[in-house]
Amino acid sequence: YIPLETMEDLEIGKINRILYLNEKYIVWDGLTNMVFIFNDDGTYYSKIDAIGNGPGEYAQIIDIAINKYDGTIKILDAMQKKIVTFDKEGQFVGETKLPVSPTPQHFCQVNREKYAFDFQRCSYEKEWQYNLSINSEELSEPIREFLPYDKALNVCFSPRITLQDVNGEIIFIPLYSSTIYTVGPLDVKPRYVFDFGDKWVSQDFIDIEWTDPVEFMNKLEAVNFVYYFNSLESGSHIYAEFVYKENKYHLVIDKETDHLVLQQETEAHKCPYAERPMCCVGNQFIIPLTPSEYNSMIGEDVVQLPEDNNPVLMFATFKNF
Fold first, then answer.
1. What integer pLDDT is reported at residue 24 of this predicted model?
2. Given the DSSP bridges, would you call strands 188-193 and 82-86 parallel, antiparallel or unpaired?
3. Per the CB 3.0–4.6 Å rule, which of 67, 95, 128, 312 could disulfide with 294?
4. Rounded CA separation 253/238 (Å)
């Protein structure tokens, strides 16, 4: 467990994403619309707080990424359609305007020159109707496009983490896909498939022109489909979760032995924390805990954290089967 340092004017509201590079944890706080950087031991290092509508500022963070070659942190701003770059001290480095609307929803660095952009089936322009694009940061030529679609969606819900770096390999989970892909600078290849048979969402359901998100969610819960599927991969294990008939399931696969464990979350097997794994470092899954969740897990004989403390990062590994 690593408690994140709590200081005046340093209160994390809701962790949306965690990234790790060069002994630093980069934490995107969706509630304050800021990014906090912590050292390996959880002590505060710096923050990115440049909310605004001018040069060097961002209005709405929709995703973050790291340039692992120079250590800079990149913020994808959906409202201003740009990528704003900061150094690890939180100082502005530069920005790139994106020549496409709507903007990508997620992105990740592939190599020194290329980034993968996830567009989430939201473009009505034929030339951008691809789930994934691999280009320079500026989305300039040549543009490589993969996994095309015929119809943009008005309402959609994606896995929380669609692009992730696992030991230098970029992994992509497309919207409404049970196939996981490996992304390279020149191609996108199937990595593995989760086969849910006829329990997987049908193309007819996907193509319905939904306009009301609440109606969509209610209908999704009523049909006989797996939904809210999400997967995260460490060096040794694959973790996935999904909902089926209002029941949540957890799935763990040992990558060395292919052994699979599937467990329905019941009162007897309920996770003692609300959040799920958000990041992997080596073979460890990183899960943020509230102070109360942390206190209940460590027991009363260990020093308890104040309720107003920042979250705690829990590092979890799965046993080999």
1. 96
2. unpaired
3. 312
4. 5
